[in-house]
Input
Amino acid sequence: MIVTASRVERFNAAHRLHNPEWSDAKNAEFFGLCNNKNFHGHNYTLIVKVTGEVDPESGYLIDLKVLKNIIRKQVTDRFDHKNLSLDVEDFHKLNPTAEHIAYVAWHRIKKHLDPKFALHVTLYETERNFVEYEGR
Amino acid sequence: MIVTASRVERFNAAHRLHNPEWSDAKNAEFFGLCNNKNFHGHNYTLIVKVTGEVDPESGYLIDLKVLKNIIRKQVTDRFDHKNLSLDVEDFHKLNPTAEHIAYVAWHRIKKHLDPKFALHVTLYETERNFVEYEGR
Amino acid sequence: MIVTASRVERFNAAHRLHNPEWSDAKNAEFFGLCNNKNFHGHNYTLIVKVTGEVDPESGYLIDLKVLKNIIRKQVTDRFDHKNLSLDVEDFHKLNPTAEHIAYVAWHRIKKHLDPKFALHVTLYETERNFVEYEGR
Amino acid sequence: MIVTASRVERFNAAHRLHNPEWSDAKNAEFFGLCNNKNFHGHNYTLIVKVTGEVDPESGYLIDLKVLKNIIRKQVTDRFDHKNLSLDVEDFHKLNPTAEHIAYVAWHRIKKHLDPKFALHVTLYETERNFVEYEGR
Amino acid sequence: MIVTASRVERFNAAHRLHNPEWSDAKNAEFFGLCNNKNFHGHNYTLIVKVTGEVDPESGYLIDLKVLKNIIRKQVTDRFDHKNLSLDVEDFHKLNPTAEHIAYVAWHRIKKHLDPKFALHVTLYETERNFVEYEGR
Amino acid sequence: MIVTASRVERFNAAHRLHNPEWSDAKNAEFFGLCNNKNFHGHNYTLIVKVTGEVDPESGYLIDLKVLKNIIRKQVTDRFDHKNLSLDVEDFHKLNPTAEHIAYVAWHRIKKHLDPKFALHVTLYETERNFVEYEGR
Output
């Protein structure tokens, strides 16, 4: 019995979209308001999906309390109430776009998950803009 | 033209997570609050996705009123305002975890659906915990 | 500057609606499915609104972390993953209707809140049924 | 790095489900209330998912402002506050079921999207009825 | 014990905003897209709030199944999948703005509700536009 | 006919809670994570409620497009993708708590609204924390 079990977690953070190899003018033009040098912020919602074989003894794919703790320890406790651009080392050389945040979250969680599981993350930056990454 | 058409239904039920082959201590430790011998409960949301070829005459994949009636008759009318552990025979030998409830709902609906359709169910146990099953 | 500050908390519980002074037939007829002797359950959402004068020094009406802790300690930790009818003493002599749960939550919170504040609670039993109580 | 980036847009429209090759009686029986000759309407929600390789320079899959503008110009500005059956040429020979609206939206967006991207659309007609199309 | 108990119901309808005493040009200018002569439509959400004294025997303010039936029979069954401007007599002489729809719904429900209750209705026309009426 | 008409708008911003008259230690202890010197951020949702007499000619309390434009010009365009603490003059001497943001939004809108209307604002900082202000 193959199922997917998912957990929703949230974090609130500031960031700035910026490519240091571009001129200020190009950054301003390309990233628009998101390039504000004083930062802006979002309530991010992270949905983590794990797929695999259900354990016939417990009836669980994975204990969602365990998954919640991995997500919090590896991702949301590190990002919550932080400035992603300044406070989080993962983004010192990586522009904190939603795509890159999802990529970093996927890799941080994957390392602490039993390798038998497939992993997929969805990251909502606003109610109307969201991205997905599954390790490809 | 291959499309997926989906219907959302809900039911409110009590349950207890418990493996009768484990000791009380192991059940309490593993399932935590969900093992409460007096039960607890949830507002479950069931999303049923059907995939196949659109009927060119009607422009429908499947009449969603028909799908709604299958879901209600086979699943939600049987589970709603019930104690899944005590009142629903499907769970007399199967621990009513979200994974197993999704599995049972899928099989109950599948039996009454035209076999030409693929079927996928998502079950939300809370706003932050949900599972998916598609018959594998 | 008079403001209202609010906090949303949740709990998942089983219950049974029943008046022990009525016959079984009258209970079944009046409460319908909610009278199931084996219980059913809900994901309850509790919105707690506090009204008063903003503190000019901090810019807070009340620290919402403090309010969250009062709600959890006095209400949601006591009700979550419980059977309200069996496990929670407040409902041994009080039918656990949404109205009464809101009433009990209001009184439990009020006792631990600075008396200078007005208090209002909203309790969602489902997405479509909810009640409000403000101590009158 | 393959990701999916998505944008949510909305439009409010009237429509009537009707097959002109069927008798009035058959239309009324099959489509029920949706066949009302005076039309009815919905708040439609359109979720547009684009999949491809992230641009390493910008960290974007696609600028979601660009995607928003394509969706608005090609779909939602044309459908919003319109009668799909009368005002929108795409539906003069195509019954405006949710399946067909999703199909039309997909083709209208696809034509203006870089061909390197895969495209998937979800259309909510109500909170409980929705369809998906991905060009197969 | 004074409480408010509320029920959420929905209906999907077409309408046109138009004042027959104004010129076509004035209607078009004032109501904009909402004046489309071929109509447009919405998924309306109606929240009905009833306030009064809880019945000490049942613990209910009002049986929400009874309130649901009043709302459906008096309002939503009459408005659902209809063209408010053409099919619903209440709007033959009253422009079906959200304000007027809320007013009509309030009066239709009030007539069938025990006069001891206060009544308040909220009508969402979209997720971002809504109105309230309480009989003043 | 007295009604309330409401409009929902959103903005995404960074901020830092800090009282410059307190020591760093006191700020850190009182505001906790919200005192992060590098800022954090939120997706704010602002609900603006206007109450008054419906215009019998149009059937509108107020044209919600007009209200939307006031909110955007006076509030959300000024706050969106900004750092409230650094970029918005209103908060140079006022700690940008949710309470104070609601207060500033109310005053900014009030000045541009016909004085015959009563005004109430609700500001969601997260899905679970929100405040209200109505000019008292």
